[in-house]
Request: fold
Amino acid sequence: MNKAKAKAYIGIDIGSISTKGVIIDESKNIIASSYLWTEGNPVGAVRNLLGVLREQFDDEKYTIVSSGTTGSARKLIGAMIGAGVVKNEITAHAVGTTTIHPDVRTIFEIGGQDSKIILVENGIAVDYAMNTLCAAGTGAFLSSQAHRLGVEVEEFGEIALKSKHPTPIAARCTVFAESDLVHKIQMGHSREDIIAGLCHAVASNYLNNVAKGRKIISPIVFQGGVSKNQGVVKAFMDELGVPVTVDENGHLMGAYGSAILAMESRKEAPFNFDVGEMDFVTREVTCGKCSNHCEIICVSRDGVLIDSWGNRCEKGEIKAHAKNK
Reply:
């Protein structure tokens, strides 16, 4: 007699810079995970992601019964994999973080091109703010400056920790920061002081813009790709004068929270890794049925319309049907 397989849940976080995925068991333990670059192709990135997760997944022990998506391309990828839950990044990050750190009060998150702050009370997100208009103070900003300095961005943290006197860098804007960086190099500031200064500039930019007007309460958890930079972590602690926690899976929190939301929704929707091998096409249709002229996104899988969104009234609703005409 065959033993019944344990249930598992998959969550995918599709960002502009990176795509993350986790599979969890019923105890919310991560049993498979992956982090890779989106490279401007969310569908292609998810195909690669599913390939990596499939290699780690024990299909003789588990069966995936539900999936969730979050991130900038959550609707597209949700349609692609037939996700039971599609949620915004704030909700997913808050759920993931509070599951591992139930006493957290403030969540810092800095990714490749955006950053956010989430304030938590009794395990519930009560306020948040995001910065998506300028790349200053993000991973993209640090990568750009690393290239200018001829240093791998992964080395920034280790180098920054060697500095005794971080160089002040103006970082309210990427253009001003780059200009100031060149000026400080010409003045003869050491590389480690400049790199430490850039890390402090990221922390200062975040606190003076994203977190402006909000009361930061400990415990603080810092996540996102930039949280792996020890120099930025130290800069936050120097600025705030309190400990800042970085979880080893902090870069996966959005995907982790998405998987938990899929589990808690109790909406079981069969998931198959083979979905990554199917042919997906997205196209934009302008609806002329009213004065809104909505731009509607249509997603087809192997020639079949599976989802659409973007309409602001029922006249622009495009329903999935047997075959596209």
Q: What stands out?
A: Confidence is low (pLDDT under 50) at residues 321-325. The first helix runs from residue 42 to 56. The longest strand covers residues 62-71. The CA atoms of residues 137 and 202 lie 4 Å apart.
